[in-house]
């Protein structure tokens, strides 16, 4: 995660240094399409998304398959069913992306909800639960840290969700 955060920060910083305060939600929106190198970059980005989408989707599909479908589908149809379910979900995702022209407010909404809950709130709660038996360290510093993280996560969840929904409503009005 540290590598990913550093990489995203570096890309965001260099994008801001190049385009200034007029930078858009995705750096690809700022790339001029009149130049050949820019067109090649956009094609390579599209290819990267095309080839890595299935990798990003693998764990979710594996969990879905094991928990919901493997016992309900005859073994001789496992491969066909997996291909059909994966194709259906990818088609739904592509349809959603095509139906919503401006994904920036939705990405912000998903990010504010998921990062707050999965990145901060749940790890802090799990650590509290795991440390109940062994203790929270000197002066209960682990408990205090986790409570601060929970408060920060709830603040980020509420304020980020509110701002994203506001942005979504305002983009629909335009």
Structural class: mainly alpha
Q: How much of the sequence is in beta strands?
A: under 5%
Which H/E pattern describes the elements?
A: HHHHHH
Mean pLDDT: 84
Main beta sheet strand tally, sense and closure = none
Please state the CA-atom Rg, rounded to the nearest Å: 21 Å
Envelope shape: extended
Q: Runs with pLDDT <50, length 5+?
A: none
Proportion of residues in helical segments: over 70%
Protein name: Amino acid transporter
Organism: Holotrichia oblita (Chafer beetle)
How do the helices and strands line up, and which of them pair or pack?
Layout: H1 2-19, H2 27-30, H3 36-69, H4 78-99, H5 104-131, H6 141-173
Helix pairs in contact: 5-6
Describe the structure.
The protein is mainly α and 174 residues long. The chain folds into 3 domains: 30 residues, no CATH class; 68 residues, no CATH class; 74 residues. It is built from 6 helices and no strands. Helix 5 runs antiparallel to helix 6.
List keywords for this structure.
about 170 residues; mainly alpha; 6 helices; about 80% helix
What would you say about this model in short?
Helix content is 80%, strand content 0%. It is an all-alpha fold and 174 residues long.
């Amino acid at each position: 995660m540290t590598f990913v955060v550093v990489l995203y920060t570096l890309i965001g910083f260099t994008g801001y240094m190049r385009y200034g305060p007029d930078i858009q939600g995705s750096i690809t929106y700022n790339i001029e399409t009149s130049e050949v190198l820019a067109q090649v970059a956009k094609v390579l980005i599209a290819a990267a998304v095309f080839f890595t989408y299935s990798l990003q989707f693998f764990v979710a599909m594996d969990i879905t398959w094991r928990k919901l479908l493997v016992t309900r589908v005859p073994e001789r149809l496992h491969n066909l069913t997996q291909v059909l379910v994966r194709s259906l979900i990818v088609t739904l995702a592509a349809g959603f992306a095509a139906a919503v022209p401006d994904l920036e407010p939705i990405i912000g909404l998903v990010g504010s909800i998921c990062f707050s809950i999965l990145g901060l709130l749940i790890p802090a709660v799990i650590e509290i639960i795991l440390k109940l038996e062994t203790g929270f360290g000197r002066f209960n510093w682990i408990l205090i840290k986790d409570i601060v993280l929970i408060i920060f996560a709830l603040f980020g969840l509420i304020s980020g969700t509110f701002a994203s929904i506001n942005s979504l409503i305002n983009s629909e009005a335009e």
